[in-house]
Amino acid sequence: MIPVSIYTDKTVGKQTLDLCVMIPYFNPAGYTGAIRRYLSCTESLQRQRVPYYTVEVALKDREFELEASTNILQLRSADCLWHKEAALNALLQHIPPHYTFIAWIDRDVLLLNDDWPHQTTKALERYRAVQLFEHMQDLGPNGEVMQENNAAMAAYAKGIDLVDVRYPGGAWAMQRSLLERYGLFDLALVGGGDMLFLQACIGFLDMHRLWPAYFNEQIREHFLYWSKTMHHAVRGVVGNISGTAQHLWHGKRTDRYYQKRHILIADLEITRDLCRNADDLWEWTSSANRQMREAVTRYFFCRAEGVPTITPALFKREK
């Protein structure tokens, strides 16, 4: 385990900060470089004097990679699934009650606008949710800027069709009362939860325009139910904060198979194949198809985010 310094001071200068950040950390393939990117993110937040809390998901009996701390929630799962949203929902229950605005930032994203905390708290007096940057720079393996594009919310506000936007995730913030009431949609089992969140906020429910035909029908129905309740509260009152974010290199975008990955769970049946564990994370049941389970596990290794330090065989079951 690598020790992590935690900054929890709730002041920015002389101003009281009613906002804190949640960071999800899970590294199922044991990729080298994951902790380094996490530390880059947290060091940036410390410099900006923003309080943050982390949730780490360790798989099976593997050691946690981050040192235990009162500001790190440690959860476990037996299976390789996209635990991000479920883990953040769990972490939210442990955030001190005086924070009225909650941000969540991917561990590989840096916000270059040092005034974003103040701008965010001001914006959330008007908006129900805000994306925390206007432009995103994809960095290469040597820290070079490979490309820059508008954030999804900034592009959508300029009239660009949601089908054509990029970067729906990275960093968001929301009024805590709404986030606690509705939570994040946690059935994005192979990823894609950021776009689903954005869809719900703005009320874009035409799934067939954004997602492949093989997107799981049961998950689609669960999403539509959740999204309608979320949108009823948010009602499209969504904005974004000015400034640029940087996405730290962790492999090629083409290795993430943003659309094709959903075919891996096309035949999943929620009640037959999934159950929640003691940490409220999804796991496979013994009835889940073995080929489907193993295909989803292999997906995390195909992402090639670094050098894996474990093998997919670790997650095989007897049945």
Summarize the structure.
The protein is α/β, with parallel strands linked by helices and 319 residues long.
Top keywords for this entry?
319 residues, alpha/beta, four-stranded mixed sheet, disordered N terminus
Account of the 3D structure:
With 319 residues, the protein is α/β, with parallel strands linked by helices. The chain has a single domain, classed as Spore Coat Polysaccharide Biosynthesis Protein SpsA, Chain A (Alpha-Beta Complex), CATH 3.90.550. Helices cover 29% and strands 21% of the residues. The chain contains ten helices and 15 strands. Strands 5-4-3-6-11-8-12 form a seven-stranded mixed sheet, sandwiched between helices. A four-stranded mixed sheet has the order 7-13-9-10. Helix 6 (193-202) crosses helix 8 (217-234). The radius of gyration is 19 Å and the shape is globular. It starts with 10 loop residues before the first strand and ends in a 17-residue tail after the last helix.
Layout of secondary structure:
Blueprint lengths: L10 E2 L2 E2 L2 E8 L7 H14 L4 E8 L12 E6 L6 H9 L8 E5 L3 E3 L4 H8 L5 E3 L3 E5 L5 E6 L1 H6 L13 E5 H7 L10 H10 L4 H4 L6 H18 L3 E3 L3 E4 L22 H4 E3 L5 E3 L5 H13 L17
Parallel strand pairs: 3-4, 3-6, 4-5, 8-12, 9-13
Antiparallel strand pairs: 1-2, 6-11, 7-13, 8-11, 9-10, 14-15
Give the overall average pLDDT: 91
Strand content: 15-25%
Q: Residue share in helices?
A: 25-40%
Provide the low-confidence segments as ranges.
1-15
Tertiary shape: globular
Strand order of the largest sheet: 5-4-3-6-11-8-12
Query: The CATH topology is what?
Result: Spore Coat Polysaccharide Biosynthesis Protein SpsA, Chain A
Q: Based on helices, strands and strand pairing, what is the structural class? A: alpha/beta
Q: Main β-sheet, in a few words?
A: 7 strands, mixed
Radius of gyration from the alpha-carbon trace, in angstroms: 19 Å
| Whole-number count of domains | 1
N-to-C terminal Cα separation, in Å? 32 Å
Please trace the helix and strand order, writing H or E for each element.
EEEHEEHEEHEEEHEHHHHEEHEEH
* Corresponding CATH architecture: Alpha-Beta Complex
Per CATH, the class reads: Alpha Beta
How many strand units? 15
Tally of DSSP helical segments? 10
